[in-house]
Records
---
Amino acid sequence: MKNLVRPRNGAVIAGVCAALANRFGWSVLLIRVLAVLSVLIPGPQVIIYVILWVLIPKEL
C-alpha cells in the first residue's frame, strides 16, 4: 500500500478520490462513482470530503 497523498495528476476536484484509490489499490473510477452515489443519500458526505481535502497532504 502507498501513502495517503493527493496526487498532482489525475485529480478532478481536489484529488481525494484519487488519493483513496491509490492508497488502497482500487480503481479511481469506482471510488468516484461511490462518492457520487453517496451524495444522493442524506448525510455528511460533502463535509467529510472537505475535511479529507484539508487533512490529506498534496503530493510533492
---
Amino acid sequence: MPVFTYSGTNAAGTKISGERIAESKQSLTMALRRERVNPTTIKEKGREFALPTLGRGKVPTKDLAIFFRQFSVMIDAGLPLVQCLEILAANQENMTFQKTLTGVRTSIEGGSTLANAMRQYPKVFDDLTTNMIEAGETGGILDTILQRLASYVEKAVKLRSAVKSALIYPCSVIGIAVLIVAGLLKFVVPIFANLFVGLGVALPLPTRIVMKLSEIVGSFWWIGLGGLVALFFGIRQLRKDPRGRLWTDRMLLKMPVMGMLLRKIAVARFTRTMGTLITSGVPILEGLAITARTSGNAVLEQALMKVRKSIEEGRTIVDPLKECGVFPNMVTQMIGVGEATGAMDAMLQKIADFYEDDVDAATKDLLTLLEPMMIAFLGVAVGGIVISLYMPLFSMIAKLSGG
C-alpha cells in the first residue's frame, strides 16, 4: 500500500502532521476524520492534494429542501442514520453538499450527534436547522422534525422567489433602458450631429439637448461607469457595518410601495421561523435569538432582540412586540391570543400562511402595475431620442415641400 504524508488540525485546533500507510487518499481522509483530525493536505509519492474545505461552497436552498424531505422518509422507514447519509451523499450532484454530508456521516461514525456534526458546517446548516435537529434527537421525533424543516425550506424558497420576481423585472427593464439610451447617445447621435453640422440647419431645442447629452456621454462615460462601481461597493461596505445595515434596512421599510411589501415579507419570515422552532420544541428565548439572526433585516433583528430581553425580565411577548413598531396590530393581537390559549405555535403558523399568501398577491399586483409603467418609460426614453433626431429632418422636408 502507498505511503501518505498529511497535515491538518485536530479537534483542539492545533496543527499536526504525520505519515501513514493507507489504501487510498480517500480512506486516509476518512480515517483521520474519525480521529477528529481535519486534513488540509495529503501527499502521496511526491504529489500533494489540496483538500476542499467542506461546507464552504454554495448549496442551493432547493437542494436542502429535497435533502430534508428524503432524509425524513428514510428515517421514518427505519434506516440507520449513517446509511441514510451515505445514500443521500452518493446521490448529490452538488459536490460541496456531497462532501459536507460525507463529513457529517464521518463525524457521526466517530460518536458525534447529528446536530453537532452539522454544526461543523455553518455555511450549509444554519442555527435554525441544527437547533431543530437537536430538539428532534432529544425528543425522538427526528423524522417529524426533518419533515417540518423540509416544509419550512420549501416555503422559504417560494417566498424568496416572490421577492426576486418583484425586484428583478423592474431592475432589468431599467437596466436595459439605460444601456439602450447610452448606446444611442454614444454611437448614433454623433452621426446625426455630423450630418446636421454639414447641412447647416437650425436645430430645435430637444435636438440640441440630446446632442449635448451625447457630448457628455462621449467625453465622460468613464465617470458614470466609475460612479456605478463606486455606488455598488459603497453600498456593499455600508451593509457590512451594523449601523449602516440598520440604516439601509430602515430606509427600505419606509419606501412607498416596496417598503410595505418588504414589511410583509419580514413578518411572514418571522412567524414561519418562530412557529417552526416552537413547534419543534425549541425554547422561546432561544427561538427568538435564532429568528433574529436569520431574519435578514437589521430592523427586525434589533426589535426581536429587544423582545427577547423583555421576556427575560418577566414580561409577555405581546407588549414588547407592540412597542417595537415593526409588527402590524393584527399580528400582535393574534400572537397575544395564541400566548393566552397556549397555542402560539399554531397561531404563528396561521399568521405565516396568511402573510405568505398576501406577499404572493401583492407581488402579482406590483408586477401588474409596474409592467405598463416600465414599457412606457422605455418607450419615452428611446422614442424621445429618436424623435428629437428626426425633428430637423422633418423641418427640412417641410421647407423643401413648401419651396
---
Amino acid sequence: MKKILFTLFAFAIYKAATYIHIPLINPDVISQFFDDADGGIVGIANAFTGNALRNYSIIALGIGPYITASIVIQLLQMDIVPILKEWQEEGEVGKRKINQLTRYLAIGLAFVQALAMTYGFRLTGNSIFDIGVENVNFLTYTYLAIVMTAGSAFLLWMADQITNKGIGNGTSMIIVAGIISTMPGMITSLVQEFVTAPESDAGTYGIFAIVVLLYIFVIFFVTVMQSANRKIPIQYSNRPTGSRFQGRSDSNIPLKINSAGVIPVIFAVTLLSIPTTIMNFIPDLQSTTLGLWLNEMFNYQRPFGYVVYIGLIFVFAFFYAFVQINPDKIAKNLQTQNAYIPGVRPGVDTENYISRLLFKITVIGASYLVLIASLPIFATMIFKLPAYVQIGGTSLLIVVGVAIETTKQIKTQTQEQKYSGFIK
C-alpha cells in the first residue's frame, strides 16, 4: 500500500509539473499550433507527455529523450561498439555503466531536442515569446533549452524513485501517467460530440454506444494478445535413468507473439512524420508541389503513405524480434545446459527450428500491430471522431503492456511477503 501511495503521489507531482510553463514563452501560441497540426509524431509526443508539450511546460520533453537514448544504446550493443558489448557481458557492473551512459546521452539529446524544438516553433511564423521579450538570440534559446533539459532530468530522477520506492518500472509508469491523464479529456470530447451537442439524436447516441463498446473490445483484445506466447518444450538429457522427472517437459522457452512490443509502431510513425512535421514548422512549404508530394508520400492517412506505414511496421517488427530473441544464442545455451527440444537435433537444427518458429509468430505479431495501429485511422474516418479521440493506437499498446507487467510485479511481491511470513 505504501508503494502504491508513493506512486500516486509521484503521478500528482508529474501532473502538476505539466502546468508549469517555461519562462518567456506564450503557451497559447503553442496550443494553437497543436490545434492546427493534430496527429502524427506531434500528437503522439504530446500524448506521451500528458499535454505537457502542448502546454510547453518545464517537462515538455517528457521521458522521450531517455527512451531514444535507451534504444540507441541497445542497438549499439549489437557488436557495433565493442566496449558496449563487453559491458553487457560484465553483469551488474556493466549494467550500471550502461545505465549511466544512457542517462548522459539522454541529457545531451534533451538539450539538442529542446533547442531545435523552440527554434522550430518560431519558424511557424508566430511569435512564441511573451509580449515585451526583446533581443531574442542564441543565449535565449540556450537558456530555454537548459530549463527544459532540467525538467527531463527531474523526470528521470522521479522515475528512479518510482522504481525503487513505488510499483512498476519508473520510466514506463511515467509514460503511462501521461497517457492516462489525457483520457478524461478524450471521454469529454466524445460525449460533447455525440451526446450533449445540440444536434444530437438517436443516431449519434448509437455511434457513441458503438465507439464505447469497440473501445472496450479493443482493450480486451490487446490484453489477450500482449499476454499470448508460444511455448517451446525443453527436455534435459542429464537426468538420471529411472528418475520420476525423466521424460517430463515442464521446462519451456516462451516466445511472445508480440516480442517487439510497441517499438515498431513508434519507429514507423517517427520516420513517416519527420517530413510532415518539418512542413508544419514551415507553412510556406505546404502549398508547394514538393509539400503536396511529401504529404502524399509520408502521411500515413493517405493511401500510399499508409502502404509505406504497414511495410515499416513489418520491417521493424521482424528486426526487433530477432534482436530481442537471438536463435543462435538460445541454441548454444541449450547445448551448454545439455537440454534439447524434443524431435530436434541440438546445434544448427535447433537454431533453424527456433528461427522458423520466431518468423511465423512474428508474422502474427506484426499483423496484430498493423491492426491496432490502423484502428484510429479507420475509426476516425467511419465514425467522424474528433481528432482528440483515438481507438487503439500506440498509447493503448503501451498502457496495456505496462499494466500487465506491473500486475505481475505486484503479484510476485505479495507472494514473496506471504512466503516470508509462513517461514517466520
---
Amino acid sequence: MKISDLILTANRNLLRNKVRTFLTILAIFVGSFTIILNTAINAGVNDFIDKQVSTIGGDGFIEVMPAAASEQIMTMMKTGEKVTEYNEKTGSMMSAVISDEDFEAMKKVDGVKKLEVFHVLSVEWMRLYGAEKKYNVNVEYFPAESMNVDLSAGRMTDDTVEDEYEIIINEDWLKPFNLGSAEEALGKTVEIGAKQTLKCYTAPNDCISIVEAKIVGVQAPGVLTMDGDLHINKALDAKLYELINEGVPEEQLSTIFAVGEVEPNKVEDVRKTFKELGSGYEIITVKDTAGMIRTFFDVILAVFNIFGVIALIAAAIGIINTLFMSVQERTREIGLDKALGMSRLKIFFSFSIEAISLGFWGSIFGMFVSMLIGYSANNILHAEGQFLSPFPTFDLVKFSPEVVVPIVLLIMFIAFVAGTAPALKAAKKDPIDALRYE
C-alpha cells in the first residue's frame, strides 16, 4: 500500500465517528488558534519596533545617567515599588550627578565621538503665536546629527545655527493649534513660557520669559517617541536653560544627564568603562529602549501562549483517547489486514497518520480562523479614531510562512507522538486473537 493510499484511508477512517473526530479536532484548533494568533501578534509588534528603530537610527546614540538614578528608575518600572533601599555607594537619585571630572573622563573614553550635557528643562507652557490658549508642554534637546525622528512633514532641527530657535512638534498638537495638516504647521511660530527660578522668589507674578520658536517639522506617531517630549534645537535649549537658571551661581548647577554619540561597534565597551568611572554610570541606547518595549509585550503574550499549550496538552490526551477507541473498535479489521499480509509497520503508520491528520486539520483550521480574525482586526483597528489609526505602518497581527508553518508542523509532531501508543498497540495485535475478537 502506497503512502498516498495510507493517507486517504486514514482520513476516511476518521469519518467513521464524526462527532468524536470533530471534538478532537476542535481541541487542537483551540490550542493552535491561540498560539498562532499570539505568535502573529508578537511578529507584528516586533516588526513595527524594528521599523521604528531603523527609522530613528542612532545606533551610536547614548543617554548617560548616574547608576543611582538608573537603578531607582528601573526598580520602580519593574516592581512598581515607590520605596527603595538606600545605597551608600551611589546615594539617592536626587543627589546623583555627573561630576565635572567624570564628564571630562567620559569624553576621552575610546569610542566616544561626542558627549554633551543634557539639560532638564521645566518650561511652563506653549501656545501658537497670537493665540491666547496655553498648553502644558515638555521640551528636550537631542543632537539632530545623532538621531533621526520619523517625520510626517518638515525636517530635522538645525543645531549649527546660534540665533534661530527651532522646534519639532508631534501630530497631537495639530488639533489644539487648529491646524488642518502637518504641512500647515511648518513655518508657524510658537511661544514658550519659561519660569525664571530666582526671579520668581521676588516677583512671583512677573517671572515668566517668553521665547519664540519656529516649527520646522512634525513628528509622526510611533512607539519610540522619547516619552512624547518635543524636540528643540541646540540654540533653543541653551536659551531656555539660560532663562530658567538666570542668576543661579554656576557652582549650584549640576549635570544630571548627558547625551552623546559613540562608535556603534564600541557601545558595549563604552558601557563597561562608564560603569567603572566614579560611582558608576549607566548608558541607554535606542536598542535598549526598544528591548524594554519588546519585553513588555513578550510577557503578556507568554501568558496567553500558556493557555494555548494547556489546550494542546488536552488535545493530545483527546488524540490518545480517540485512537485507543478506534483500535478497540477495529480489532477484527486489524486482524484481517494482518492475515492478508499487511505488516506491523504499515499498521503502525496507518494509525500514526490518523493522529497526524487530526493535528493537521486542527492546526489548519486554527491557522485560517486566526488569519481571518487577525486581518479583520488590523483593518478595524486602523479605521479612523481607532487604536491603531495614528500608526499606519503598525500591523498588530503579522502572518508569514516562517511564523505559521513551524507551528503547524510542531502540532502535527505532537499529534504523532500522542498517537504512538495506540498505533503500537494496533501493530502488536495477534491476527488470530484479533479475528476472534467480538
